Amino acid sequence: MKQLLPLLILLASHQMVEAQLRIDSSFAFSSNPAKKYSIYVPSAYNASSANEMMVGFHPFNTLRWNAQSWCDTLLAFAEMNDLLLICPDGDSDGDVTDSVDYAFTLALMDSARKWFNVDTGRVYAIGFSVGGKAVYEFGLEHAGLFGGFIPVGAAVNGSSFVSSTISKSGRKPFYLVHGSLDVPNTRFFPMLTALNANCAYVDSNYMIGVGHTIDFPNRNQHLSAAYKWVDSVNLAPKTGTFSLVSPISFSSIELKGFHELTHQFAWKKSSLADNCGVMKYEIMFDYPGAGFANPLLVANADNNGEDTVFTITNHQADSALSSVGLPFNTATALEWTVRSVLLGKYSDTAKAFTVVVTRKTLGFNLTSPSNNNVVTLEGGQNKLFDWSDLNHYASVKYKLEFDDTSGNFSNPLYSGFSPNNGANSNYSIGHEELYYGLFFDNNYAIGDSLHLQWTASAEDSAYREYASSNRNILLIRGNIGFSLVFPQNNVLIQSKKGSNYSFFWDSVPRDNVTYEWLFDTIGADLTDSASFQLRSDNGGMNAHFLADFAFLDSIMNFYGVDYLDTLKGKWTIRALKNGNLEYSLETYSLNILRAHPVGINQLGLADQVSVIPNPADEGVWIKWPNNWSVDQLEVRDMSGRKLISSRPMGIGMAELQVTNLENGAYILVLINAEQQINLRFLVQH
How many CA atoms lie within 13 A of 454 on its CB side? Predict the structure, then answer.
């Protein structure tokens, strides 16, 4: 700012209580070193309280109008209405509507709020001719700064020039002053229509026989009437009035969860509801005296909020009230009210009614087994759990649930829908299902027990209710688990080339369980450290295991079984999950006859193969008759897993490096297209 008049400095620093001042001054702005303005301070101005302010835009006529002459014109009007009058100058071109002038107006208003004690809620704009256009254009662009507008004979050509800002006129007061001889069809009526369509508060003075002039008869009286109306509308509450209808205060409402009976809350239409946008309503519930600052529940009225009624079913209401912690079978007083929403803003809230709401359970009961019943889980048996049926609610599904005696079923140990997709009000559940659902994950042994509680729950898509009371039950693990299926106990199989054998067992009814096939000789403890422990097919996921000839032959070699001799062994299965394991109920004996292999082994030619040295340390030489056709040599461990594969160095000989093999027994395999020969050798470093 270039400078301020001494009088302004005096006013700002000493906060004069009252004054009647005329200030014509300037300050540097944009490229203008002395942009002018005029201010009139009415005699009623009081620096100790907030004062109304009027921003005046002068017309476009450099021969007559500038900020000073416009301030002169409005001075008596301002004094009559105790208005602090602020008039920006349009510069030498006389136009107050260019971007620099609008920016200067903002700066001048900001300065005035610093120089004077201004009631920011009672700032208004007035202008004549092009100044009236500025009232629309600048005023709507900065609608939040103004409490109302008085365009006088506005020199506009329709309303299209404010099409991007006309929506900001909603709920703002506009008082249009216009002469009937001043092109009203383009300057008056289009703006009147546009303001009404956008929900402005509009009044007007359509002066018959008056042309384009500010010097109409009784000017100050007309402008004062316009100001008083705009100010009164600005200060009046911007709310309508409406009232609640039903349910009336202290009505009683009972909610039973599954019941489809509806409840309706109704109210009268708000007095603000008109063709000015769509009035919507929101219903709110809260505890008495809470004031709805943070209501328990908020919901739109019917028809996406447009109706004056809210409809809710019993179980919708119960589910909502359950989510905020209202207990069952307890009468709870709640206040309800409605607030109206217009143009995205809350317009009014009706006086609240009080209702007494009771969430009631349907109260179905458990029937059997009796409390503290003892059940020993045995394979192939079932236990019936039964409860009363809510047969008049077709959509209800039941669950049987178990939990610790200290639990509340919020995270039950076991939960499953009853048969018939949950429709049955009883569940004859297999002992195996109970065992694997409750015992399996914790390595329970036969004779171990679980002291639990059980209940039934009923639910639909919106509501859930438990039986009226829980019951205790003692479950004891009996002879239950999974069983071996094939081959049967004491079966004799043969280990011979071209033969494969599959082992099958019952799968465990649990997810993410893997299986291991265990084998050892008679007398060994399979639960301790079986000689052969291999995962079942499909990475241990399948309940079967395929033993091919190579694997069976490796077993024969591991135990040193000669051809035509029989290995007496046994096998079983164990299931594993999350570090827990369970062995099958059975261990089956298995007799494996080592048959003669087909080809050179039948002729005793294996004796013609030399393995030097044996035991080997770093390398081993293999020699065989020169007339043999050997295509491939392999070294396998005793489980049949291939460790080394090589081709012969020449006719009748090969060398293999065994440095990386651990100490122990291995199988050397000589292979051609027709046959193979297996020999055992040792590695010892």
Answer: 30
pLDDT tens digit string along 423-463? 999 999 999 889 888 887 777 888 899 999 999 999 887 77
Mean pLDDT rounded to a whole number for the chain: 87
**What are the residues facing 375 on neighbouring strands?**
475
Any residues with CB less than 8 A from the CB of 287 and at least 6 apart, and which?
296, 333, 334, 335
Relative to beta strand 173-179, strand 201-207 is parallel
- The single-letter DSSP state of residue 469 is S
> For residue 92, which of 30, 133, 35, 132 has the smallest C-alpha distance?
35
Edge to edge, the sheet with strand 501-505 lists: 484-486, 501-505, 544-547
Query: How many CB atoms lie under 10 A from the CB of residue 346?
Result: 11
Please, what is the angle between helix 219-235 and helix 67-80, to 10°?
A: 70
Distances, alpha carbon 151 to alpha carbons 52, 124, 154, in Å: 18, 11, 6
For 100-160, the DSSP string reads HHHHHHHHHHHHHHHHS-EEEEEEEEEEETHHHHHHHHHHHHTGGG-SEEEEES---SSSG
Residues near 146 by beta carbon (within 8 Å), at least 6 away in sequence: 55, 123, 124, 125, 139, 172
User: Which of 547, 592, 532 minimizes the C-alpha distance to 567?
Assistant: 592
Query: Exposed, middle or buried by CB within 10 Å (0-12, 13-18, 19+), for 554?
Result: buried
Place of tokens 């069983």: 483
- Whole-structure pTM value: 0.44
Q: Is 447 helix (H, G, I), strand (E, B) or coil?
A: coil
3-state secondary structure of 555: helix
Separation CA 678–CA 633 (nearest Å): 10
Residues in Cβ contact with 15 at an 8 Å cutoff, skipping those fewer than 6 apart: 47, 48, 117
| Tens of pLDDT, residues 563-576 | 768 889 999 999 88
Query: Beta strand 118-128 with 51-57: parallel, antiparallel or unpaired?
Result: parallel
Phi, psi of 315 (to 5 degrees): -75, -25
The SS3 call for residue 228 is helix
Q: How far apart are CA 287 and CA 242, in angstroms?
A: 22
The answer to whether 179 and 170 have CB atoms below 8 angstroms apart is no
Residues 199 and 209: beta-carbon distance below 8 Å: no
Helix axes of 6-14 and 99-115: crossing angle, nearest 10 degrees: 50
Amino acid code (one letter) for 677: I
What average pLDDT does this structure show over 410-415? 92
User: How are beta strands 84-88 and 51-57 bridged, if at all?
Assistant: parallel
Distance set, CA 163 to CA 136, 168, 390, 398, 572 (Å): 11, 10, 62, 61, 86
DSSP string, 485-516: EESPTTEEEEE-TT--EEEEEPPPSSSS-EEE
Is it true that the peptide bond before 615 is cis, omega within 30 degrees of 0? yes
Task: Supply the pLDDT for residue 347.
Answer: 72
